Amino acid sequence: MGATWVSGFNASMEVFAQSGFPSKSVTIVVPFPPAGGADVLARILATYLSNLWGQQVIVENRAGASGRIGAAHVARSEGDGYTLMMSSTASLGKDNVAQFAPIALVSAAPYVVAVNPKLGAKTMRELISKAKAQPGKLTFGSSGEGSASHLTVELFQQAAGIEMLHVPYKGTGQAVTDLLSGTIDLMFAPGQTVNPHVKAGKLLALASTGDQRSRTSSDLPTIAEASTPGYAAVGWFGLLAPVSTPAPIVQKLNVDVNAALSDPNIEKIMLDSGAEPAQTSPAQFGKFIQSEIAKWSLLETTLQSKKKS
Fold first, then answer.
1. Per-residue confidence band for 10, with pLDDT thresholds at 50, 70 and 90
2. Can 2-108+235-300 and 112-233 be said to share one CATH topology?
3. What is the pLDDT of residues 105-154, one digit of tens each?
4. Which end of the chain is more exposed for a tag (fewer CB within 10 A), N or C?
């Protein structure tokens, strides 16, 4: 990050000296239920930032409507830096993205294709064969309609020429619970939510969704390697604030979040959980969000047209 980081850090410290920000507790709203990818990362960050600031950092789950209820709450909040949101694909779209100020991308990592062992598929090719033999019978869970864990599977279905049944949940944690019980067959899920169960032998990991192997599971092939050349998608999580939040406050938050993500202890915790730390400026994160919205909006339009026909 070099001179840019130093400049940002100095600006942040000047704001801190002038305003004493934060001078009270900060709330990170997670617009999904507990135990999902956004929740896990928010709690990792909250511990670090609380120690850094000497102020309590509260993680508040406000689930519903695929993340839109929590997002709406944050958008209506005062833009003073004390109410933030740990977002992912589902809670942002063309209709509400302008209501937020991007702070920092926290993680953008491939999802893990996790299946219940009862399904009897040990490779991606076996999974595709089962799906083709039983169109619409295999079930996949997601954290909600329009979430990354939903759209990454839809993209895969198009590429592989298969059809499975989508079962949306209010959050990743609830979907993983049903995956463990065998109520659903598979998920494309954040590594931090399924890797512990894979290690315990309760789930099978078949592949990752990125364009290259994940740092957190380098022995796991990509979907492109395992079965479907050209397929690639990632799930991301990032911190945002209401759009009215002053730029100096956004800059300070960015510097402090990036400091957390570059801390060796935090990096290890994230990698061990299956999440890959990111490093961005607010502007870089904003461009990333716009590119993701454009990509997934095109897929959603295709899906809506398919439903109408």
1. low
2. yes
3. 999 889 999 999 999 999 999 999 999 999 999 999 998 888 889 999 99
4. C
Q: Are 112 and 189 in contact (CB under 8 A)?
A: yes
Could you state, in order of their start, the residue ranges of all structural domains in the chain? 2-108+235-300, 112-233
Q: Characterize the bridge pairing of strands 139-142 and 165-168.
A: parallel
The CATH superfamily of 112-233 is Periplasmic binding protein-like II (3.40.190.10)
120/19 Cα distance (integer angstroms): 59
Predicted local distance difference test score (pLDDT) of residue 4: 47
Reduced to 3 states (helix: H, G, I; strand: E, B; else coil), residue 157 is: helix
Q: Hey, what amino acid is at 48?
A: Y
CA distance 213 to 225: 9
Write out the two tokens for 280.
């961005």
| pLDDT score of 298 | 74
The full DSSP string for 203-227 is: SEEEEE-SSS--TT-TTSPBHHHHT
Confidence band for 275, pLDDT divided at 50, 70 and 90: confident
